[in-house]
Each structure stands twice: as structure tokens, then as C-alpha cells.
Design a protein that fits this description.
Blueprint: E1 14-23, E2 26-36, E3 40-45, H1 52-60, E4 67-72, E5 75-76, H2 82-88, E6 90-93, H3 105-116, H4 123-129, H5 131-143, H6 159-172, E7 177-181, H7 192-204, E8 209-213, H8 217-223, E9 226-231, E10 234-239, H9 241-246, H10 248-253
Parallel strand pairs: 3-8, 3-9, 6-7, 7-8
Antiparallel strand pairs: 1-2, 1-4, 4-5, 9-10
Helix pairs in contact: 3-4, 3-5, 3-6, 5-6
Amino acid sequence: MASLQPETVSRPVLETRDLTINFGGHVAVNRVSCAFHAGTLTSIVGPNGAGKTTWFNLISGQLAASAGSVRLFDEDITSLGAPARADKGLGRAFQLTNLFPNLSALENVRLAVASRHRIGHVFWQMASKRRDISDRAAAYLEQVNLGKRADTPVANLPHGDQRKLEVALMLALEPEVFMFDEPTAGMSVDEVPVILELIANIKHQQNKVILLVEHKMDVVRSLSDRIVVLHNGELVADGEPAEVIASPIVQEAYLGVSPDQEPRDSQGAAV
């Protein structure tokens, strides 16, 4: 399947070139090349063990590549660790929350705001004294419907609220690339729309790259401009959502449908 190309020729914001990682004798991600342009939301799908989160970890710097490269605004950032990549504009929300459990929700976001704006050498002392930093942090909490939980220690927040807080931290860092790894995992039905609306609002800005790993096909269909499919660590499909979802390789590898059956989504509806 041909890769989806932007309507106008422009350099990609983010690109992986032959990105590969080996764990012993197992190739978890195998020579994956893909470019992402501003204003596009790309969903990365595939069966369990396909390499989706591993590819995310290679892009964001949690794992070191065995071969290939990661480029941001055409700069090779492959040798940089996760903090340096975040400083250059890569924002990552994790499948498992990555927060300071003994600090309040507001304190967590306040530290992220201070870090983004380089307020002082000791972020905590400086951020706690700055009203503008606190006001900005409170605004991010309101965006994820956590304003009433501002003073609650993270350890006391339910899992769904911790996921929302992690999104607030990523918003506070103002990245150029937003990376969401199953952002609605563990959330109740009532909580999911808050996160999906946030992602949609980021998409509407038209100047950010959004990467989304997601198993819920209804979420993928509603948000995606493009779908990339990984299977056994390799990129096997890349294109517009309807085209990719209906392709035989996706129906068989991801949705468990044999090529001679009518294409259906994960809820069993014909596509």
C-alpha cells in the first residue's frame, strides 16, 4: 500500500529511517521508515506484540536503537536521551502513568510549566513562589477536568484521573509532537470523552504532529487522518483510514478476519 503523502511538499516534523531494535535474537522493530507532517494525526495500530509501544519508545528515547535513526525537524536526535528529546519538542504520554505520587496534581503540573519556561535552577522552589506559573498550571488542570482535584496527592487519585493528569503535564510542556500510548486505557466510559476532546482540540491547531497508539477502532476511525499498521515489528500498511482498515492484511493480522470474509471493524461492523 502506498504511503499517504501530504498535499503540499514540506519537510516532515518527525521521521524514522530504518529504525530497528534487537532484543537478543529477536527483532522487535525491523527497519521502520515513516515521516510525519504538522497538522496530521496518525494512529499506530496492530496486534499485541506488533512493536507499537517499542517503536514509540525508540522515537521518544526510552530505548536506544540498534540501527536506523530518528530525526526531528531534520536534526538527527538518535543519540539523545529522553529528556533531551523532550526539550526539543517530543511530548509523550505513557501507557502507565509517570507522575510524582507524593505531590499534588497542581504541584506536578506546576513543575512541568516551570521546566518548559526554564524558571530558575531549582524548579520546585521557584515555581511554588510564582503566581503566573501556578495560574498556568491550574488552567491546564481545568482543561482535563481536574480543577477540583488540584490539591489532591497523585497517589490518592484514581487511575483515570492520573491518566488525565499526565495529559495535563504533556500540554504544559508545549511539545511539537504529541505521542499518546493508549490514552484512554483504564478509564471509565464517562472519562474517555474528556481525553478524546483534548486530542481533537490539539489536532484542530493544525500545527502539531500527533501520534496515537490505540486498540479501540472507533477511536482510531473518529480521530485519524492516517493509519500506520505494524505487524511482527514491520510496517505493513500506511494510508488513509478507510483504505487501511479495509485492506486484507489489516483484516487478517489485526482484526482476525480471513481475506475472503467481508471487511469489518473491531466491533463487527462492516467497513
